[in-house]
Amino acid sequence: MPRFAPLPGWDPFRSRERLTSLWSSAAVPTVETGVAIAYRTLFTTLRRLVVGRDLTVRMDGKDLTLKVTEFDFRLELRGLAVGQVGDVLIVAENVGWREYRFDQAMAVASNVHFRPGATSEIVAAPVELSLKMSAEVLEELVAQVSPQFVAELGDDGIARLFWRRRPGWGHLEVDIRIVGTALWLQPRALVVGGRRVGLPARLPIYPVELPDLPNGLLITKVDARPGAVLLYGLLPEWHIDLPLSRLEDIVAQLSTRSGILNLARSARLM
Fold first, then answer.
1. What DSSP state is assigned to residue 150?
2. ∠ CA 198-199-203 to the nearest 5 degrees?
3. pLDDT for position 43
C-alpha cells in the first residue's frame, strides 16, 4: 500500500501515515481488533483535523463553507469490528451555501456503518439536519420573490411584512410554514395605527423558495425564533463511495493548510 509523502506544517502528528499503517494491519481478515482500531483511529483523526477549522467542501460544482465546532461519536470495538459506527453528531457555524449564509447547522447521522462490496461505502440512515437562518437571510429571500414587501423578523419571534412604498402605514403579521421546498408566509393579522385586526385564513399566501437543497432532503419543520428562523430537515439515507484509497485521499486533503475537501466525484445523495 502506498504511503503518504510528508507535508510540511499542519499535520505534526503524522496522522495520515499512522492511519495508513493501521489500515494495512487491519486488512488481515483474522484480526478483527485491527479492523476496529482502524475505524476508531479514522474517526478520531478526522475529528482532530476538522474541529475548529474553516473548511470548504466542494461537491458537484458547488462549494459548502463552514467552521466545524463539534464532531462527536461514541465508538464500541465490538461494533467497529463489523463496520458499525453508530450515531455521529456534527455542528458547524458560519455556514455558506451558494450566496446564502447560515449562522449554525447541526447534523445527526444515525446508524453510520461501512458497507463492504466491490466499491466500499459509508452509509447513514437517517440524517437529521437543522439550520439556523438569520433574519437578514429571510429578508433577502422575501425581497427576491416579493419586491413590494419588506420582511422583518422581530425580537419577539414574529415575522412582519411592510409595504415598501409606505412602511409607516402599518404591517402584516405572518405565520411561517413549510410546504415542499418553500416557506409559506400566511397573513394572520393587520396592524395599522397601533390597532391589530385578525385576518381570515383565505388571504393569499406568499411562497418563498429556499436555496437548492441536496436531493432527497425533506424540510419537515420551520420555527420562527427571535432574530432567526430554524429549519429542520430529514434525509432518509445518505451514502458515499469510500474505498480505502478515497479514505486516504480525504485524510490527505484535510491534513493540508488549504482547508479544501473535494468530494465532487464521490459524494452521492439518495
1. E
2. 165
3. 85
